[in-house]
Q: What sequence folds into this?
């Protein structure tokens, strides 16, 4: 029986018993949602993880890049071999791995003890009882100078539990490798050509909604103390703006992992082939493909030649290189934009994540959706898609240029960015001065207080304070010698817990930055679907899955993995004040040179994008040249055709095998 007859019979029995293409897209879209939610939540927790495990930004970059490491381990094999088997079940298995990896990332919280931070307001087991230490007093020995019990027995310098996060992220990356290449090629196989781009655009739109919830979830979790339910909130003496604050980073992984597990289940109930939409005879190819399952050996024989054909495509190669440069800049941006905004504008992690979610993510989602609409409405071919992608990318980049002018000043920290005395030159090295020389303040201490002279001091000890009033977050410090050295009276020489506030204009620039970024994302994403379609339309139909897989592999190997690591090291190079671990050794950075950070962050991203756009313009030129060559070939064939005098002669020539053979040779 012919396949068309079988398909017709299935339709006559009722479509309610068979999953449709739209059903598959709906299930896949929910998986895209959970994937992007988890990914964005991971980005939002970078600062929290850095502080909780007392590690550097470059180490956090390794954790973030481990997702790409897991992905690249299997992406090529899955893209090529997975397309020959039961794709929905393979995607379902990948989603289960993603759920397991995500839940594993929350495990360290349950294996570690409570979070401890050094502060002048320490508390005993009774959360309401506070004791004061670390003030400038010649009688009391500074507790930070005392050895920590247990460290001499080999206690690690910082917790090694971050390795569990790395392993969990690798597992999550392995599972995600099935989602994009198999899911999108499956849709492209069964959808009409004019609808394929629209469906893919809708898919990515739903996927981009995930970060909206991911950053919102990150904001909520960051506002909750890490040991929520175990510690009395009143006993926590640090605020959300403090560089030692750690939110409930683990809670979001539990939520995201549960949702991913739910998304994995429907794939196991989908058939190997979906009911097809009546279109051209080419739709029989997917059905024929599924009538016989080739052996692994048969498939492997064709892998080498297929890869060679793919990599010999000049347009595809240039497309990959240009994407790689742009992708490096994109990875740096989405990975470190929360940290950049926190440091540059002095905002808390919770507020930063929330505002990124509600401003940038809707712009991205709307842009991606409209990009699919543009492809469908104007029926853009390969050249049209390339042109739209290029011009929207450049236009989006132009909106980011004013961000170079949006900056705040470094906060004035005595001994770091400001002087202890008004008449002295700025000290960039050393945190001690004559006003606190007899206090025995350790250089490793970080418990900032804000003096009435609008200068931040590393600790009350470094401010030379001798008395306290109040408890917890409301504690104030009095009779501070270093504050008096600015010409203030003893009555006005007090300080309060926490860093001094930034200038009032800083908040305005923060919101302007978010607005410009939202507009930039929207314009850039208008060309996102056309940009992705190039990888499908610039290669032969049977190489579509492999082309997407190779694209993702190269982007991950040379972009997704190294970008967070090398830029994390660059961020570390701008650190002005490091924290120290419990048993010694450098921990997380407490304060950065935000001016240098701004030029490095925005400058490197801009350079990568400019070089990428230059290469992408060459891609557009190549595509245009190829289409012009093809058009000339068609015109030549038309000119070579004989002029037919009457319908009978035309019919006779159509039936003449020699004539038809000659016409094919011209073609």
A:
């Amino acid at each position: 029986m012919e396949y068309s007859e079988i398909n017709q019979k299935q339709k006559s029995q009722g479509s309610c018993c068979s999953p449709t293409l739209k059903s598959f897209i709906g299930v896949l879209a929910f998986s895209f949602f959970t994937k992007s939610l988890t990914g964005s939540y991971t980005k939002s927790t970078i600062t929290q993880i850095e502080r909780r495990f007392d590690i550097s930004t470059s180490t956090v970059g390794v954790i973030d890049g481990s997702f790409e490491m897991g992905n690249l381990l299997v992406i090529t094999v899955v893209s090529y071999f997975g397309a020959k088997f039961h794709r929905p079940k393979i995607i379902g298995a990948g989603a289960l791995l993603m759920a397991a990896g995500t839940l594993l990332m929350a495990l360290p919280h349950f294996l570690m003890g409570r979070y401890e931070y050094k502060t002048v307001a320490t508390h005993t087991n009774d959360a309401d009882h506070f004791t004061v230490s670390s003030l400038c007093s010649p009688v009391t020995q500074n507790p930070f100078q005392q050895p920590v019990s247990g460290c001499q027995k080999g206690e690690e310098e910082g917790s090694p539990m971050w390795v569990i996060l790395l392993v969990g992220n690798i597992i999550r990356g392995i599972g995600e490798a099935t989602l994009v290449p198999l899911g999108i090629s499956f849709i492209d196989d069964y959808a009409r050509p004019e609808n394929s781009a629209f469906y893919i655009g809708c898919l990515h739109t739903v996927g981009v909604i995930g970060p909206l919830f991911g950053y919102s979830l990150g904001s909520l979790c960051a506002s909750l103390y890490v040991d929520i339910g175990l510690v009395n909130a009143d006993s926590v003496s640090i605020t959300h703006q403090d560089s030692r604050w750690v939110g409930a980073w683990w809670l979001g992984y539990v939520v995201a992992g549960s949702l991913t597990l739910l998304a994995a289940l429907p794939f196991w109930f989908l058939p190997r082939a979906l009911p097809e939409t009546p279109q051209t005879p080419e739709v029989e190819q997917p059905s024929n493909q599924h009538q016989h399952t080739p052996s692994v050996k048969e498939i492997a024989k064709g892998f080498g030649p297929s890869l060679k054909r793919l990599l010999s495509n000049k347009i595809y190669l240039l497309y990959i290189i240009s994407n790689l440069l742009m992708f490096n800049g994109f990875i740096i941006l989405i990975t470190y934009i929360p940290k950049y905004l926190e440091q540059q504008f002095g905002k808390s992690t919770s507020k930063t994540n929330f505002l990124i979610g509600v401003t940038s993510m809707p712009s991205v989602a709307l842009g991606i959706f409209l990009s699919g609409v543009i492809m469908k409405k104007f029926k853009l071919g390969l050249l049209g898609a390339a042109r739209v992608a290029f011009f929207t990318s450049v236009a989006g980049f132009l909106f980011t240029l004013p961000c170079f002018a949006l900056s705040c000043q470094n906060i004035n920290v005595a001994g770091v960015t400001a002087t202890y005395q008004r008449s002295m030159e700025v000290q960039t090295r050393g945190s001690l001065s004559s006003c606190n020389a007899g206090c025995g303040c350790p250089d490793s201490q970080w418990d900032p207080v804000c003096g009435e002279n609008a200068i931040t001091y590393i600790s009350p000890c470094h401010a030379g304070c001798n008395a306290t009033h109040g408890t917890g977050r409301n504690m104030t410090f009095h009779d501070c010698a270093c504050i008096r050295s600015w010409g203030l009276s003893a009555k006005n020489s007090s300080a309060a817990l926490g860093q001094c506030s930034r200038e009032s204009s800083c908040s305005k620039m923060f919101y302007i930055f978010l607005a410009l970024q939202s507009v930039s994302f929207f314009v850039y994403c208008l060309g996102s679907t056309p940009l992705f379609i190039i990888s499908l339309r610039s290669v032969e139909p049977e190489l579509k899955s492999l082309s997407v897989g190779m694209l993702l592999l190269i982007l991950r190997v040379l972009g997704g993995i190294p970008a967070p690591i090398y830029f994390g090291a660059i961020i570390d190079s701008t650190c002005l004040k490091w924290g120290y671990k419990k048993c010694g050794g450098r921990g997380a950075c407490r304060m950065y040179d935000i001016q240098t950070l701004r030029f490095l962050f925005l400058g490197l991203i801009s350079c990568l994008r400019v070089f990428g756009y230059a290469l992408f313009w060459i891609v557009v030129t190549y595509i245009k040249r190829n289409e012009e060559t093809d058009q000339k070939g068609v015109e030549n064939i038309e000119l070579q055709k004989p002029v037919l005098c009457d319908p009978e002669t035309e019919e006779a020539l159509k039936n003449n095998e020699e004539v038809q053979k000659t016409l094919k040779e011209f073609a």
About this structure: The chain has a mean pLDDT of 78. The radius of gyration is 31 Å. The chain is about 60% helix and 5% strand. The first helix runs from residue 3 to 12.
